[in-house]
Amino acid sequence: MDARFSELLTPFLKFLGEQEITPDASLRELGLDSMQAIELLFAIEDTFGVTLPDDDMNDTTFATAGSLWTVISAAIDAQGAADGTRVTAA
Amino acid sequence: MSAAAHATTPPAAPVAPLTAASLAQRTDQVAAVAAEHLARTDRDASFPVEALAEMRRTGLLGLLVPASHGGLGGTTEDVVTTSIALGRTDMSVAMIFAMHCQQVAALVRYGNQRLRDELLPEIAAGRVYLASVTTEAGKGGHLLSSESALTARDDELLIDRFAPIVTGGEYADGFLVTMQSPAPASPNQVSLVYAHRDQLTVERSGDWQPLGMRASHSVALRLTGTVPAHHVVGEHGDFRTIVTTVFAPMAHLGWSACWLGTAAGALSRVVKLLRGPQSRGRVNLDSELLLTRLSQARQRIETVHALLAHTQQVVATTDDLSVPRVQLLLNSLKITAAEECHQAVDGLIDAVGMRHGYLKDSPTRLEHSLRDLRSAALNYSNDRLHLVDGKLALLDAEVRLA
């Protein structure tokens, strides 16, 4: 996962405390509220310049930090392929 | 705790393969008993113990229990059909049935093998009526957080829980209770736990004197006790999955069915009154105002029926119910059914006027139906659902309809 990703997620996780965000961290348990989903999408767009596909707006995507990052990475790759430039999502 | 709660448990009827006719017959039997007692249960705000006993006797309490566990092996569609039918007679009885079925659906799908083997045959035999304990002071009907934490000790779970509204709680044989998971990382880790009545101390507080839904007897309870560890339903902390896949769809389909039945029953009684011999020559059936109001009531009922049938179909055929378009459909069903069914009956009161619209002793029972249906918008508040739907609408820029 990208350091920018952890940084953008942190404000949404009111129960995170001093813990580090790991890929298997449950976003719901850490305090992500479905009412904040649109704000989270804006943060993702602003940070990575990608829009997540509508088909990925489901509980599976938002289950863990890792599952969300997988979807973001795919969107970054897809956009890189479309632009003809390769952006590697670490 | 009154002795009456446990006094009426005759043996369940033998289980035959479920057909539409046999389901309708069982439903008719329950509706007949409900009809016999509804004036009193409404007047006294008392639980319909006779109708519950008939649900036990006819096997309807085990409608969703698979035949392999001795139940009728019914489907969500059967729950909807039955809830509509019972709602035509008594909305409280219908809601008691629909909410019990919601609990059973969660147990069938998420109970572990041991709990299923212990409990499902008891439900099928009519010995266990389940109440839902999800409300909590200060959070409204919000399902996905809880302030009361379960304590795990050896192989047991300690329950200590206050709930301001538990429909049928004084008469339930078992409870499905939401609580914070043991040692939670956050209040968002909620678990669902089954507790049998004899595993709990059940203390009631306060009185039950509502506007409508008076027979639902939805009292405040404090539950304390200890249950075995295998009584957790689904994974600890993962109640959310149960809500998305079972609780929310079953609640919105089941409630809407009860409300639709109540409105349809009201219209039916009005039409029968208008066509009855006592109205001959006294009611002008060419009145454009009357015809328009009847049409409008029917239109509202048709709208809810169509939306209910469509939503039921989507729920039955969609793998992932968490996507915005499906959530929006489920919430729209609940909001629309609550509004339209209430307004249908309200309009019928205008259609027939003071005598048959407003007085308690009219055979139309519009006064009773209207009071009951007033609860629909509040029973998981429409206002709250609109806020959720507004956010969900923003997530679906293409407006793709389920």
TrEMBL record, chain A:
Keywords: Phosphopantetheine, Phosphoprotein. Signal peptide: none annotated. It comes from the Bacteria. Residues 1-76 form the Carrier domain. InterPro entries: ACP-like_sf (IPR036736), PP-bd_ACP (IPR009081), Ppantetheine_attach_site (IPR006162). It comes from Streptomyces klenkii. This is Acyl carrier protein. PROSITE patterns: CARRIER, PHOSPHOPANTETHEINE. The keyword Phosphoprotein applies.
